[in-house]
Write a structure and sequence with these properties.
about 550 residues, two-stranded antiparallel sheet, mainly alpha
Amino acid sequence: MRWLTAIYAVARADFLERIRCFGFVVTLVVAVVAAYAFVPPNHASYSTLHFAEYRGIYNSAWVGAQVALLSTVYLFLIGFYLVRGGISRDRQTRVGQIVAGTPISNAVYTLGKWLANLTVLGSIVTVLIITAATLQLIRGEVTAVRPISLIAPFLYLVLPIAALVAALAILFECTPILRGIPGTVGYVLVAWGMILGELMTSSRFLGVQHVMDNMRAVCHTAFPAYTTGRSFGFDVHPDGGVWNLITYVWGGLPLSSDFLLSRAWWCLAALGITLVATIPFDRFDAAGVRSRDGLRSRFKRLRNGRGHAGYVHQKGELAADASSVSARLPLTPLAGGSPHTRFGAMLVAQVRLALKGTSWWWHLGALGLIAAQVFAPADTVQAFVLPGAWLWPLIIWSPLGHREIFHATHEIEFATPRSVSSQVATVWLSCVVIVLVMTGGAGVKWLMAGEWTRLAALVVGAAFVPSLALALGAWTRSSRFFQVLYIAWWYNGPFSGVAVLDYAGVSAQGGAPTVTVAYALATLVLLITGAAGVHRQMQS
């Protein structure tokens, strides 16, 4: 069956291309570090999964389920950005034009890309399984590793979500309206909303609630005094002490046919989404000549003798007209350029350029977040509005450090006087201004209330995030690594309330002076690193 061979060839080529990148190695390292943080020892200052003062003992079933639960949430939110870009890379490197000239069908091509995405996510999950087994031995509460109990949660929880995310990445890349900024912001908002719905309501889309309900039932059986109360995520001890959790034995989730069928449906839905993606897929035909009218007009031009030769002839006429016009124009040579730059004008231009790719609904959402900071209750602002305000400018930060390379304007911009210092300063400062405006409502409240530590943390955070985006974008020449790292940082910091990761002082535990000073120093280091990366681009 030739189509199976073609799917395998496309998937294998794309997978090998991705694992050879330095970013893939960094992703694996980050996954291992995150898994280590997901399984804290008892008597730690934070906990990731507990029911009141109880949690399961660290046997294979509990450790596998705990890492799988958190991996499901993270892959659903971050995995999309890890695997998206395979089709765009073929488009940018002109490999797509070669693919368009082969007999490979659109369905075979998209299925191959989907399989490559799934393999990339599967390799990360494999590393997490090995890490979970190692963590069980490190924690030492139960040293007997049972492979089936350890691996089962990854199969029924993580695998269906990985397949779905891999398919959604293909659909977004094939659909023009979802390929750019609207798709990036839209996916973040939808994924964020679905995760909140899973954690706060009875929704069972991700399967997290189903597993936790069984854990809660077993906990109640072991300890009848337990009735309510649970925590999922990084939960810092409220008194600044350590968690002394009482353990119980959880042997794993009883797998019913209904639950397994519901998870299998997501795998089938992923295949359906991948095939649906072939409908808007243009097969790398940017000129739109796939339509019947486009082909008919091309044949008509060739029949009338206005094919390629006619194009060259018209181009020559245009060049002759341009020469005659330039001969009549009086050109005065520039006597000597001023070494000074109009910093204010450049800053305004960079702000306009940063906002140029945004649509009206993005501005409407930004205004809504600013207004909510002013009028919403303080608890709502801290829990939802401010975290949303720190996620909304993601599309503004993402191009930093490589925007000129992506749009092929670097040769013009790097030829200007003081290109590195002026470009880096104005681009970075323009993003700082935008973030300060986005969080201005809370900033004004803190200023009027005299909360100087929170205000200082907000200003430092507004400088830190663009510095991080600039450094990563300048050295990787891509926005994907920053998007993945920042979303994970944002989820654990401003959203979940881990004080060390709260770069903007959003949570109740955030805004400590020592943390603010640390992020201020990190901002300076990242800014210097980003400027060095831009200078390296100019030299190359």
